[in-house]
Amino acid sequence: MKETLVLSKTKMILMGFACALTSCAPLIAQNVPASNTPVVAAPVPQPSAREEAHPFPPANPKNFTAPTPSVDEVNSFLKALWGYDTNRIWEVAAILKTPAPGVAKVVVLIGDKRAPGKAQPLIFFTTPDGKHAIADNVMDFGAKPFAEARKTLQDRANGPAKGAKSNDLLIVEFADLQCDRCKDAEDKVDSLTQDFPQARIVFEDVPQTDHPYSQQAALDGYCVRQTKGDDAFFSYVQAVYAKQAGLTAQSADATLNAALTAAGADPAKITACAATPEAAAAIEANKKLAEDVGVGQTPLLAVNGHLLAISAIPYESLKQMVAYQARQDGIAVHLQPTLSDLK
Fold first, then answer.
1. Model pTM score
2. What is the tens place of the pLDDT at every residue in 280-301?
3. Among the four 87, 154, 232, 319, which has the fewest Cβ within 10 Å?
4. How far apart are the C-alpha atoms of 4 and 311, rounded to whole Å?
5. Which residues sit opposite 152 in a β-bridge?
């Protein structure tokens, strides 16, 4: 998958589902029932202090025709996604029946406290079982939408790790050693290691098909870890990224051998290990884990199951998102200003 073309489901969510006002507004009107059609109305929330500070158009009760999800369920879901951002505000404008049994169409108006009077619509659909939200992709729905992915990663993310021993706050980095944006993201990952000593940060190497030397780099990295340990693995990653431009037909072998030597490994022994079925199976397991939790690009971070497109998020926002997710999961974090805030 090309990281330049494929958006992860979480990046799509964070971009507000990229729905333009002119295309979304008519869709609400098209689904408003006629006056002689029975209406199953969900409760329309009363004005709150948030609404008074930044009012949205009044919600029309006729736009609440689906029995589920409730307004509270939608708000809980969006709070799990966006609660870290104190400037983002929203209002559930419609929860509509669709021709598909049990499928509801949800319309939310999104605003920013710093831009009063401006709102952008977001549209997604919920499945009959109430467990998934669908826009361009599918993601888990509910007040704890990341819980299942978190459990999967706690059980199966067993790659090289640094930081805390506990995986209560688990940050899994999905990367590809030939991916230039993965290389660029390492400064942010290093800063997270510094700013969140409570976090266990795990590296899962997921070679992408459009990077011809990433598979061999991943196999070599697996063998470095097996023979030399996690610290040597991270030294190897650093050395590969430093000479990433050398991953070409003419110099890939020399580049990887130099990285192995820099990590204190014997290139000949690593080459023999990398050719084993065990090494191949380990990398395939990484790919399967990425697929199972919805990773569609590299680099990507999973913060207690919450997938974040690290290269698209400024570090200060990323730090707030990690802290917010930790608190949502009952983990106390205390952010202090550090030099990493300047990155």
1. 0.78
2. 999 999 999 999 999 988 999 9
3. 87
4. 11
5. none
